[in-house]
Design goal:
Layout (H helix, E strand, L loop, with lengths): L1 H20 L19 H16 L6 E5 L5 H10 L2 E6 L2 H13 L6 E5 L12 E7 L8 H11 E14 L8 H14 L7 H10 L3 E7 L7 H9 L2 H10 L1 H8 L1 H9 L3 E9 L7
Parallel strand pairs: 1-2, 1-4, 2-3, 4-5
Antiparallel strand pairs: 5-7, 6-7
Length: about 280
């Protein structure tokens, strides 16, 4: 698939740069409900994980799947926090290799495993996981219905689904031509299919028979993140890292300003979706 090839190339090229410049967690940070908390940006990324778990009502899990696992940041954090068996899936061979290395470095190789694979056709058995966690990977999925279906399939009865993803603002009113162009430019840089509002995820989760489906908009809570990333990218070490990463990453770097503008204007939303598989679902 052409889109998957682009995603793979982008993360193969950019993940090493991101780790050296920002750390293991390839996602936004949390800066308090209003985005005004003054916190170290690396700590803010850990705080995001904790706050999402709290919002999702997840106090523990024994088997966890991280869909779009990056270099294993969330997966390894959750493995340590819950003492869980954790699996991660990514399209990027380099991310998978690095995640496995990091699991070994932290003594988690026996409890954390990673695979290269497609989230729309996951290589896991039905009813396998207590928690399916997807942090900023849903925006890459070209078939959102298939994505939610696969996440539901691998959940155990009573298991919880947590999706954190980029969405566009609610509709109606319909997106303007200027808004569509803005999102298209970001999509071209970051290899994204067409954007959707958070209501699409809620409808798809309900259609899968999931219970307690709800969503939240944390756009304000993460608002300091893109300005911080831009400042880091414009530092001498950041500029050098971007230049070394190659053309695929250069274009993505130019799109950072588009992300910041999109959040400030309310076009882009940082959305959370939670749901639970019915305890009585057939095993």
């Amino acid at each position: 698939m052409k889109l998957n090839d682009g995603i793979r190339r982008f993360y193969d090229a950019s993940s090493g740069m991101w780790e050296t410049q920002w750390g293991e967690h390839m996602h936004h940070g949390y800066y308090g409900p209003d985005g005004k908390a003054r916190v170290d940006h690396l700590q803010a990324q850990i705080d995001l994980i904790e706050e999402v778990l709290r919002w999702g009502g997840v106090g523990g899990a024994s088997t966890i799947l991280d869909v779009g696992c990056g270099i294993g940041g969330s997966a390894l954090y959750l493995a340590e926090k819950f003492g869980a068996e954790v699996h991660g899936i990514t399209l990027s061979p380099r991310q998978c290799e690095r995640a496995e290395e990091r699991a070994g470095e932290r003594g988690l190789a026996k409890r954390a495993s990673f695979r290269v694979g497609d989230a729309l056709d996951m290589p896991y058995e039905d009813n396998s996981f207590d928690l399916v966690w997807s942090c900023e990977s849903g925006e890459h999925m070209p078939d959102k219905a298939r994505f939610v279906s696969e996440c539901t399939r691998v959940l155990k009865p009573g298991g919880r689904l947590l999706i954190v993803t980029w969405c566009h603002r609610g509709v109606p009113p319909a997106l303007s031509a200027a808004e569509e162009r803005h999102l298209a430019r970001i999509s071209s840089a970051y290899y994204l299919p067409r954007w959707v509002p958070v209501s699409t995820y809620e409808e798809l989760a309900a259609a899968q028979g999931l219970e307690a489906v709800s969503s939240a908009d944390w756009s304000n809570a993460v608002s300091p993140f893109w300005p911080a990333v831009i400042r880091r990218a414009l530092s001498p070490s950041g500029l050098l890292a971007v230049l070394r990463a190659g053309p695929v990453v250069w274009y993505g770097s130019f799109a950072m300003g588009l992300m910041r503008w999109g959040f400030r204007r309310g076009l882009i939303k940082f959305a959370l979706i939670k749901a639970r598989k019915p305890a009585g679902a057939a095993e």
